[in-house]
Amino acid sequence: MKKIILSFILCGGLVFGQETKVLTLPEAISYALQHKAEAEKARLNIRKGDAQIAEVKANAYPNISFNSSTAYNPLLQETVLPGEMFGAPGQQVKVSFGQKWTSSNMVQLTQNLFNQSVFVGLKAAKSTKEFYLINAQLTEEQIIEKVANAYFQVYQADQMLKNAESNLSITNQTIKIIKGLYDAGLARKIDYDRVVVARNNVSSGVQQLENTVDLTENALKFMIGMPMSQEITLPEQTFEPALLPDRTADLSERTEIKLMNKQLELLEWQKKASEAEFYPTAALSANYGFLGQGQKMPLWNGKDDGVYWSDMASIALNIRVPIFNGFATKSRVELNKIEIEKAQADLRETQLGLDLEHKNAITKLENNMTMIGMQEENVKLAENVLSNTRSNYQHGLATLNDILDAERDLTEAKNNLTKAKLDYKLAEIDLLKSQGKLKTLNDIN
């Protein structure tokens, strides 16, 4: 009994864990922005920008270090000096300099007083972080666009499935009509067999579309980083087209333009960093330490052991003035200018492309709205044709081919309407992208 109860509990937990989630477009976008690797890497790049700023700032702070060196000299260097120095005229005397053991322990401080490359680097690091912030925004917009496209692809597949199921229901109704006529001796056996074959073909198409729905749902779950085991369903009203009253666009607000302008700014800073090599540099350095010398290890011996310690200190101002380096700096500056001009050309081309993208999005939006109206009328007309054809068939005024053709026309009209609605939603996404307003998809149902 305990095992049975435990089995029921586990099964209940499994069913609860597989509960279907109703997923709206804003929820799908929010989930993707939290779980996709691209969004996470963009956030990490922002932290990277903070670290780069801190790294460049370090060059403006004092640098303090401690150096210790202890050496043993088994053979001391000998120098030959005139004997007169030692009371031995006409002779040469060998004299050893130094001690067997020496130990130098020094604290050193250096401080940049003027270094143009450090000042430029600080400003460039700030621009680099701003670049990462804009790039993160662009990454979010790209994720939103991909998720929205995948989201509406699921809707299209689901609507196509519903169309096929509706067609299957219509075909079943036709079978009932033909069967009734056949039983009454008013229809041929071949007519009944043909509608059964048509029903089987439609049923096969329904199965294929069910697989298509599963595939598009899995693609959407992958796009947003959701586990494949999570069952999802989409609210039906989201697929209905919504008119966008504002169709104007300010290209300067496009994230792509902002990013390219920031890239130009970084290239300018790179040029200034190269030009900084023309400037002199000045730095202050200070040293203080102790030097120990003797016949024994100095670190733990003193004067009583024949080791003598003395302190030493120095303060220096180091100035470096560049004079000539073979035109290397001038060449680097010229290369930087070329990169800037190339980036400016790319910016102009991008602006032209974005303007084209906006105009095309408006055209597609208007055309697809017109197409939706036409297809809605077409569906109503196809339904009337099918109804009238059935009635005519019962009175001997139409053939079975007429009925089957009318059913196919109705199915095609419904599928065309579904495609027109999808094309409208995709054009809607393109328009929002061209306006730099993709994030407003969180508010569109």
Shape: elongated
Overall pLDDT level? 83
Structural class: alpha+beta
Beta-strand content bin: 5-15%
Largest sheet: 4 strands, antiparallel
CATH class: Mainly Alpha
Q: Specify the CATH homologous superfamily.
A: Outer membrane efflux proteins (OEP)
Could you say what the CATH topology is called?
Outer membrane efflux proteins (OEP)
Which features would summarize this protein structure in a list?
alpha+beta, 8 helices, Outer membrane efflux proteins (OEP), 445 residues, disordered N terminus, elongated, four-stranded antiparallel beta sheet
Give a summary of the structure in a few sentences.
With 445 residues, the chain is an alpha+beta fold.
Question: How does this model look, in words?
Answer:
This protein has 445 residues and is of the alpha+beta class. The chain has one domain (22-61, 115-279, 326-443): Outer membrane efflux proteins (OEP) (Up-down Bundle). Helix content is 62%, strand content 15%. It is built from 8 helices and 8 strands, in the order αβααββββααβαββαα. The chain has helices spanning 2-17, 25-35, 37-57, 116-183, 189-224, 255-275, 328-394, 400-435, and strands spanning 21-22, 63-72, 78-82, 92-96, 101-114, 232-233, 281-294, 307-320. The strands form 3 sheets. The protein has a 4-stranded antiparallel β-sheet, with no helix packed on it. Helix 3 runs antiparallel to helix 4, helix 6 (255-275) packs antiparallel against helix 7 and helix 7 runs antiparallel to helix 8 (400-435). The chain is elongated, with a radius of gyration of 41 Å. The two termini are 50 Å apart.
